[in-house]
Design a protein that fits this description.
The complex is a heterodimer of chains A (358) and B (263). Chain A has helices at 3-19, 22-45, 47-50, 58-68, 70-73, 75-100, 108-130, 295-299, 325-351, and strands at residues 132-140, 144-146, 153-164, 170-181, 184-191, 197-199, 202-220, 224-229, 233-235, 241-248, 250-253, 259-263, 270-277, 280-288, 305-321. Chain A has 358 residues and is of the alpha+beta class. In chain A, a hairpin with a 2-residue loop joins strand 6 (197-199) and strand 7 (202-220). In chain A, 26% of the residues are buried. Chain B is mostly helical and 263 residues long. Chain B has helices at residues 3-26, 29-57, 65-87, 92-107, 124-156, 164-197, 205-223, 232-255. In chain B, helix 3 (65-87) runs antiparallel to helix 4, helix 4 crosses helix 5 and helix 6 runs antiparallel to helix 7. Chain B is globular, with a radius of gyration of 19 Å. The chains are: A alpha+beta (358), B mainly alpha (263). At the A-B interface, helix 2, helix 7, strand 15 and helix 9 of A face helix 6 and helix 7 of B. Bound molecules: protoporphyrin IX containing FE. Protoporphyrin IX containing FE sits between chains A (20-22, 25, 86, 89-90, 93, 107, 110, 113-114, 117, 342, 346, 349, 356) and B (176, 179, 218, 221-222).
Chain lengths: 358, 263
């Protein structure tokens, strides 16, 4: 062996010893703890930067946040590096034990806890690099929604029932959904609070729900109350019909004479309707419900008086993907099992005076 | 829950604490035995009250500050009983029960009403998360008391207090048991986060500090192997660790605003 080889070997050996050092572990864990302690306060007092941290994976949030305020964000990569080195340190310790310690079965608990922590660290990193978080996505009953970043995969909301308290406060959201892969149904579930649909790293869960103006109820002399919804047709006589094409909750005419939406709250509703005769469309135009009925309708002998709006409920779903969720689950399982084993071995080790001292 | 029963419980624990103080002065075993019996009665009563509230609510009611303080106090008294029966550490009871009186005293003026469980919390993972968390906290509180006593004893060298070796053993054991239970709390919490929010780690400040608590006590499970840290440094670390626990449990809710369901 040449001198150089001997030197590089001893360097490797020293690196290995450093990797297995408990003192290094304590230094790294303390550095990470202090950085995260400070960071958590920075995070709390700078919501504009850190609010998005929860809504996206690290690989996407961090570059954005760094471009906004590198000094405020620096603690995130720094503590991440400490935790990563700490995980490597734990791995070295684990390997070192496996090679050295004789009465291994007695250390099963510790092995499992340490291995579990390593798996969780890798899973966290992996999930935050190649997963995604998306939503909330607005979806109406009967609609299909393409799953972001996953070509061919789509979600269909079969049925949606919001659950309300007697006071009207939202309680839960029952979403009967099915998941489709290139036209084939691959999963279905009743998605509600604490009961997501989990499929191949995807987690689909309810976030909220809302309502969109879908039409209006009218009083029509001789017919009583009638309902007109978007896409629906109202027959006036055996030959004429009204079709509601579009409904806006708050609209106005702009300078070019075009109707534009000005808000999403019910304020100045307008509907795009057409009057159909036996030979086709007789007229199409906007009807502002606060104004009198358009002349063309009145001339056709139609009398409508708007009474109340008709809404359509939509569900808001969050769709996340964590490709490492199974690895994280195995890590968590290892730690849980390890804790139970370690609880037994702790007292055994004590009784035998087995205390590795540094 | 009737307030008078709560006051009765508080006075039982307070009398036991006074008993331990008198025992420290006069060293009559009968007084220490009386104090221990009172704590046993207190734990029995508190277990009954907790079971009654559980039965009334249909779920483990630990969803507000009163309920968590009450549960924390129960867990601490129970854990003290375990250590007392195992190690006969009488005078230690003074330190632990003083802390317990603070917890129960904090709960006394609060509203005891049980509210309906909101669906977000309606999962066994929530109960497991809370049970493990507060039993873990109670072990850390025990370690804090024993750590404080260790520091007193290392100055006083009094034969009225447990010897340093015993205190060190209890401290290490409390930290290890606390860490184990808190680990289970974190696992239950992560699974819950996964099914409730779609990701198993959340960056909200309470979750971040819970990870810090876990890291700190994981570190303490190893610190006992460092020869120079055994005893004194370890006792100081137990005290500092409990500071982190208190900030996570109370500080974040009282000083900062957090969206964690427990505040
Ligand atoms: C978050 C990471 C870690 C966790 C949760 C963890 C947890 C634990 C637990 C619970 C024990 C059992 C303590 C006892 O029996 O009293 C233990 C023992 C031990 N750990 Fe770790 N540990 C971690 C990282 C590390 C690292 C980085 C090292 C090495 C540098 C290490 C080295 C040891 C050693 C040497 C023991 C003693 C095993 C024995 O009794 O022979 N641990 N660890």
């Amino acid at each position: 062996m040449t001198n150089n080889e001997r030197k590089s070997l001893s360097l490797l050996h020293r690196l290995w010893l450093l990797g297995c050092s408990l003192k290094l572990a304590i230094a790294l864990a303390s550095a990470a703890t202090l950085l995260i302690m400070g960071g958590s306060l920075v995070m709390h007092f700078n919501p504009a930067i850190f609010a998005g941290m929860e809504k996206d994976i690290m690989a996407r949030w961090l570059p954005w946040a760094w471009s906004q305020a590198p000094l405020l964000v620096a603690w995130v990569p720094l503590s991440g590096i400490c935790v990563l080195l700490f995980a490597i340190n734990t791995l070295c310790c684990l390997i070192d034990w496996l090679l050295k310690i004789k009465a291994r079965w007695r250390k099963t608990g510790e092995y499992l806890i340490h291995a579990g922590f390593i798996l969780l660290s890798i899973a966290f990193l992996w999930g935050n690099i190649s997963g995604f978080r998306s939503g909330p996505h607005r979806i109406f009953q009967g609609e299909h929604l393409a799953i972001p970043n996953m070509t061919g995969l789509s979600l269909r909301l079969e049925e949606f029932t919001p659950q309300l308290e007697p006071s009207g406060r939202p309680l839960d959201m029952l979403n009967q959904v099915s998941l489709w892969d290139n036209g084939t149904q691959v999963a279905e579930a009743l998605v509600r609070m604490n009961h997501p649909l989990i499929y191949n790293g995807l987690v689909i869960l309810p976030t909220s729900f809302g309502q969109e103006l879908d039409g209006f109820k009218f009083h029509m002399p001789g017919r009583g109350v009638i309902e007109l919804r978007t896409g629906s047709r109202l027959s006036i006589s055996s030959e004429t019909n009204i079709i509601l094409h579009k409904m806006l909750p708050d609209a106005r005419l702009n300078d070019q004479g075009r109707v534009i939406q000005t808000g999403s709250r019910l304020n100045n509703p307008a509907m795009l309707i057409s009057l159909q005769g036996p030979s086709g469309k007789l007229w199409e135009g906007w009807y502002f419900l606060r104004s009198p009925l358009p002349r063309q309708l009145r001339e056709a002998g139609i009398a409508l008086r708007p009474t109340e709006p008709v809404f359509k409920t939509f569900s808001l779903l969050t769709i996340n993907r964590d490709p490492a969720d199974k690895m994280a689950a195995v890590g968590a399982g290892c730690i849980t099992l390890g804790v139970f084993f370690a609880l037994f071995s702790f007292y055994r080790k004590r009784a035998q005076g087995d205390r590795p001292e540094v | 829950m009737s307030k008078s029963l709560l006051y009765l419980l508080f006075s039982i624990y307070a009398t036991a604490t006074i008993g331990y103080l008198l025992h420290l002065i006069w060293r009559r075993p009968i007084i220490a035995k009386g104090a221990l019996a009172l704590i046993a009665v207190g734990v029995f009563l508190q277990t009954g009250l907790l079971a009654h509230r559980w039965w009334l609510a249909g779920y483990l009611p630990v969803t507000n500050l009163f309920a968590t303080l009450f549960f924390f106090s129960w867990a601490l008294a129970l854990i003290y009983l375990y250590f007392e029966l195992r190690y006969r550490i009488r005078a230690t009871g003074l330190f632990v029960m003083l802390l317990n009186l603070l917890l129960l005293g904090g709960a006394l003026p609060r509203d005891t009403k049980i509210s309906a469980l909101i669906p977000a919390l309606d999962t066994p993972l929530f109960s497991l998360h809370i049970i493990f968390s507060f039993i873990g906290y109670a072990f850390f509180a025990m370690a804090f008391s024993v750590g404080a006593l260790y520091l007193c004893q290392s100055r006083l060298h009094s034969n009225r207090l447990p010897d340093l070796q015993t205190l060190r053993r209890i401290n290490e054991e409390a930290i290890f048991l606390g860490f184990s239970l808190f680990t289970l709390c974190m696992i239950a919490g992560s699974i819950w986060a996964h099914i409730a929010w779609g990701h198993w780690f959340s960056w909200n400040i309470k979750s971040v500090w819970s990870v810090l608590v876990w890291m700190f006590y994981a570190g303490m499970c190893h610190a006992k192997f460092i020869r120079r840290w055994q005893g004194g440094v370890y006792a100081w670390l137990s005290i500092a660790g409990f500071g982190v626990v208190l900030f996570t449990y109370l500080g974040i809710g009282l000083l900062l605003e957090s969206n964690h369901p427990l505040e």
